[in-house]
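--- STAGE predict ---
source: upstream dedup step, 1 unique chain passed
mode: sequence only
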Amino acid sequence: MKKLSNYFVYAVCFIAVALSTGAFIKVNAKTNNMPAGQPVDLTYAADKALPAVVHIKYLQNSKIQTVEMESDPFGGFDPFEFFFGNPGGGRQQRKIQTPKREGSGSGVIISTDGYIVTNNHVVEGADELTVTLNDNREFSARIIGTDKTTDLALIKIDGKNLPAITIGDSNDLKVGEWVLAVGNPFNLNSTVTAGIVSAKARSIGANSIESFIQTDAAINPGNSGGALVNTQGELVGINAMLVSQTGSYAGYGFAIPTTIMNKVVADLKQYGTVQRAMLGVSGTDVNRYVDMKKEEGKEIDLGTMEGIYISSVEDGSAGAEAGLQEGDVITAIDSKKVKKMAELQEYLANKRPGDKVTVTYLRDKKSKNVSLTLKNQQGNTNVVKDADLDVLGGNFREINASEKKQLNIATGLVVMKVNNGVLKDAGINRGFIIQKVNDEPMKTISDLQKAVKDASTSKDPVLYIQGIYPTGKKAYFAVPLHND
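--- STAGE serialize ---
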């Protein structure tokens, strides 16, 4: 009984602390016009946001894949292998069955007709996506587009009058401001955690383009793709990741701001891929550069401790044509002060190729301004489109067992038919077997689809095709992809 009494006392104390904390947080103050230090009503934000946050179930079916493996030169004698495959050792082909993969994450409904924003890593490679709403209705979803560079994805369910969230401006967030993280951690649906904005424009090296909102609202596995909302229940970020030694929440989470999300969503809807404006310079934050030089025993005076130190300028880029050079320090863009690379990336993420900007920079501690026209990754201002197999103008199939044996090859795709398209322009004929594209082996039609898509939006939109004719003659083609 004594132990039970102690437990009862502990429980009462715990409840008292919880209730006092709840009383502290729940204060009727739904506007920003409050005295300094006044708590906010987080129940209002939760009520507004919860209906728009969904649970996403990911399914990737089991598949048969051919993989290359090294023979074990010290292994036992295998008579089957000796007589029928791979005598003398070396590399050998094995067929393996990949396991079915399942996972889950979160998403946010941004329009009443069913558009949902989530993370790229939540949906990448999925064969099936099932979306469950806060009211337990289930829908199948299709992928509209993905952007690995920002780790964002846009999916769609068929519905009407769905509970869409109000999108706020992440630029208006202030460090120290209360926010809620809403999602489905550990498959616990409709979970809300509270915290503050710990930092803005945070770069942690996870994505190519990032300017994270850092928060101490608890974010755990399954929260990915969920909503970060302000005290008005407006979406200000898409929860993306946590930084932890254990894989679970350890103090800080990171969200993609709506300033980046809005542009990505608009481009995926209109073009199917993100129209990325490039300045064409590489660099780092000035304070990091100065610290790095100090570690080398060098004292550097750039005339400022804020801005972006340019370490290289790409030939033919917008920056090169405007005269930017290694050693320059970018301090502002369109009169907006930029203190670090993440802020510059966030600003440029809202631009498209062809847009004009004014860059303010220091050279030899003297301030200069230059106007320039931003370009795409391919060095022009055209719209970049996701190409598919139609651009090739051909029909394909995987090679069969007799072709593998006859030509002594493991994988490849046979060109069954050539119509009008880039294959015909390059001189590739019916019967040619494509073995590699851009150094990637072609085992399935999906491999070829991915190679075409990746190349079409890359800096070098060319397919470098290696293959073999039925006669055994090997050939190599460079096939430009046209973005007309």
